[in-house]
UniProtKB/TrEMBL annotation, chain A:
InterPro entries, per the entry: Asn/Gln-tRNA_amidoTrfase_suB/E (IPR017959), Asn/Gln-tRNA_Trfase_suB/E_cat (IPR006075), Asn/Gln_amidotransferase (IPR018027), Asn/Gln_tRNA_amidoTrase-B-like (IPR003789), GatB (IPR004413), GatB_Yqey_C_2 (IPR023168), Gln-tRNA_amidoTrfase_suB_CS (IPR017958), Gln_synth/guanido_kin_cat_dom (IPR014746)
Catalysed reactions, as listed in the record: L-glutamyl-tRNA(Gln) + L-glutamine + ATP + H2O = L-glutaminyl-tRNA(Gln) + L-glutamate + ADP + phosphate + H(+); L-aspartyl-tRNA(Asn) + L-glutamine + ATP + H2O = L-asparaginyl-tRNA(Asn) + L-glutamate + ADP + phosphate + 2 H(+)
Name used for this protein in its record: Unannotated protein
Positions of transmembrane segments: none
GO BP field: glutaminyl-tRNAGln biosynthesis via transamidation; translation
Domain Asn/Gln amidotransferase: 332-468
Species this chain originates from: freshwater metagenome
SUPFAM superfamilies assigned: GatB/YqeY motif, Glutamine synthetase/guanido kinase
Automatic annotation (TrEMBL), chain B:
GO CC terms: glutamyl-tRNA(Gln) amidotransferase complex; mitochondrion
Keywords: ATP-binding, Ligase, Nucleotide-binding, Protein biosynthesis
Protein name: Unannotated protein
InterPro entries membership: Amidase, Amidase_dom, AS_sf, GatA
GO function term, MF aspect, one: glutaminyl-tRNA synthase (glutamine-hydrolyzing) activity
Domain Amidase: residue ranges: 57-449
Organism of origin: freshwater metagenome
Amino acid sequence: MSTTWEPVIGLEIHVQLKTATKMFCRCRNGYGGEPNTQTCPVCLAFPGALPVPNRRAIEETIKLGLALECTIADRAIFHRKNYFYPDLPKAYQISQYDEPLCANGRLVVPTADGEVEIGIVRAHLEEDAAKNVHVATSGRIQGATATLVDFNRGGSPLVEIVTAPNIHSADVAKRFLQLLRQTVVELGLSDAELDKGSMRFDVNVSVRPAGSDELRTRTELKNMNSFNFAAKGIEREIARQIKIYENGGTVDQETLHFDPTAEESAPMRSKEEAQDYRYFPEPDLVPLHPAPEMIEGLRGQIGELPTARIRRIANTLSFYDADVLVTGGLDRLWAAVVDGGADPKEAANVLANAFVATGINPSAVNPEEFTKLVASRSEIPRAVFDDALSHVGDPGFSAEPYVAQKAVSDASALEPVIAAVIEANPGQVEQYRGGKQGLLGFFVGQVMKETGGSADPRVVSELVREQLGA
Amino acid sequence: MSAGIDTLRLTAEEALALVESGQVSSVELWQAYRDAINEHDGELHAFLTLVDEPDGSGIPIALKDVISTRGVRTTAASKILENYVPVFDATVAAKCRAAGMTLLGKTNTDEFAMGSSTENSAYGPTHNPWDLSRVPGGSGGGSAAAVSAGLAPWALGSDTGGSVKLPSAFCGNVGLRPTYGTVSRFGVVAFASSLDQVGPVTKNVRDNALLYRIISGRDENDSTTVDVPPIALPEGTDLKGLRIGLPRQLNEVEGIEPGVKAACEAALAKAEELGATIEECELPLSVEYGLACYYLVAPAEASSNLARYDGVRYGLRSEGVDFREMVMHTRHDGFGDEVKRRIMLGTYALSSGYYDAFYGTAQKVRTVIKREHDALFERFDVLVSPTCATTAFPLGAKAQDPLAMYLTDVLTIPANMAGLPGLSIPCGLSDGLPVGLQLVGPQFSESTLYRLGHALEQAIGFDVVPERLR
Ligand SMILES: [Zn+2]
């Protein structure tokens, strides 16, 4: 008899906060800049330089902790995590260890099959490493001839979020990541852009016989820079492990670097080198005691969160539509358009498809004008609508000039064109009358062509049917 | 003009008066000390780096070479920082500059302030101005020797386990180890962050208070600093109402020299004459466990603090085929034996599996030491003992015996572990060598220590000029 296998997945996510300055010094915190221009004695670890924590970063971590229903510690401390690496100038990272700012939270992930609760073990604050650039022909560390270090990123505030290993499918893992990203973006903490590294994540995967509660050897997947790749990588790793167990083998604890173009995940290094980070409390910093009033103030800044909104919108639309709108950051615009009188389903379709394709930032759109445009969608030619949509993000966009280009729906103007089309296609007329109703589209298409797309296709369709009427 | 200035006897307060009244220019004063350096530093080796141009309008100062000085080489007496020139001033150096002080140079120390004799300097030892065949104490032997021999009116040292108090005792100076957190550590090459504290080394108590006033205070660049209560300049000799405790375990420590005991007893008799009450008390745990506790905490923090010297950004870099080897060669070539010994001790104390037994336990013991002191301060204003059981020992006497060297600090360490201020004042001679008296008070009690120190100074009439230089 064959075993049914249950995947066990845990996630570790790093989100770079977009504070104005770095975590422990007052250097500009931000992407870009000529290498090593955003540095100072503190983030370069000159002798005697000392860290001073960024208050804003602490507040934002607490805010995220609240959004994830964590307990906010009344005493939190920073620890040193010691190891040598060129991108780590102090040879220790200031991080948090056994007294993090936020712990024991959860994020509820709505799915088509109901809600799944993912435990949040902790959310803590730390500093980012700098960036190594290995100068080599292959671009990989193995063939490197030199390493250059850009310390601009070094010392940026990072929040690390660790989930409980209670995710049991690649799809839920992916939805969790999307939902977390949207939460972080909405709270204004980070741009959380995977391609710029402002959101990064590692995935721990193991499998076990369904129904068992053992935790088998896990592998760690790194280097995944999209949620779809993550889902694909997890699926692939689950399948690999199941195959190993079914062939009587054992899974090695190793780190796998995901290459989306390859068929298999390439093991980066087999067996983690046992690292002793010699954690100890950072003596250059004093314990943090977040004041209850401060915590309540931050709680007050949190609006309705994505999970709650998906839940609410799924009462009106399908789960799928609600999920796409919310995780795509489209639902606030959607709500405004619906409030303006647009049809909810139609508005959702426009947003999820045509609008997303334009790449326009939803927050740049004036909902009033957008509502007018959606309302006139069926009355203006498609080309005009598409043109209008590509400009909805422009400052001062007005729907008026587009809406004014109403499609021709006046029967007296369309009837002669229809008559001419019928006249020109006697064969098709005969087939249609013989029962081939599908040819209706053909006639409508011909009429649209003749009118240069300016006719209202619904009116044309009606008139054609009338004129061909059995 | 410098011929008219007796740098051996001139106090900083007197020097300041000369400059402020226009009797002597700032440059003339600086030149007088520079002439003294030129005459005597060949045999003393108190300085590692000399500044060739005075750059202020006030009186000169010498700084221990662990204090970063912008544009002036700062080596921490280590080969690994042989050519390191800071781009920023330590807060204490900036405060001295802001007060108009002119820098004479950087003084010798044990490498990274690790030692009790200044023999661990990578650039050779400093000699005691009272007897050139003897050590000046450590780690801040250079600052103490410079002040004692009239090469600087005053100086700054740094005290982790006794590095201001001990050299001050051995060279006949007044040295303060301030309450932890009252003087900024920003820019001070770190040894053990939770213990390091910069303190003044002076010819008399009033000078000490004047300099402490200048360097102390909350610093936004050092999170561990606090607001400091006003510091009273000591006047008069009345000690009525002052309660002095004599911890038996400190005053009867094993190996105490009869001459040291006699000098201390004579000083205490004077205190009693001036109106103080004196009573014996007990400090058993602090003395029994203080040293062991210190030699876990300090090396542990040092092992992490010194990890930044990796050859990547500044300082020495030795060649290696890859990053790891380059770091290993750099640290092998750059650090001296005592530094390596402490890095190994500290790394071990923090290792997983040993952390709880060593570093964790040491931190708990530290709390015990603090409580034991707090309890005594309910009955006493000041605790008094010798600063060291012996006077300055001969160069080389303990160089091959690290444990004997560590024991030199057994009387200064307990108060340091508790974060308490300690003032060492000269209280007489034993076989022609200065004896130091250690005054320890509760947190922020510097004004009380100065009051007692000043009264005893007046009553004892110790001649601070080394006999061989009179
Ligand atoms: Zn910086």
